[in-house]
Design brief:
By secondary structure, the protein is an alpha+beta fold. It has 1 helix and 2 strands.
Length: 66
Amino acid sequence: MLHRADGSARYSAAGYTVVAAVNGPIEVGRRDELPQHAALEVNVRPAVGVGSESWSFSWIRKKLNI
């Protein structure tokens, strides 16, 4: 599906479609390394128009319970 990703998937329901990609793991610089922690980067882009970054972030936090 997404050619430059390590893995990708598409899910559609109720008129919405979500495309997700997974990349990694990647090397972390020695000074930035926190071996007891994991990092997750989430990028949200609407298919049409301009998305609201604050809306996206609050929606993701709510879904992940963070």
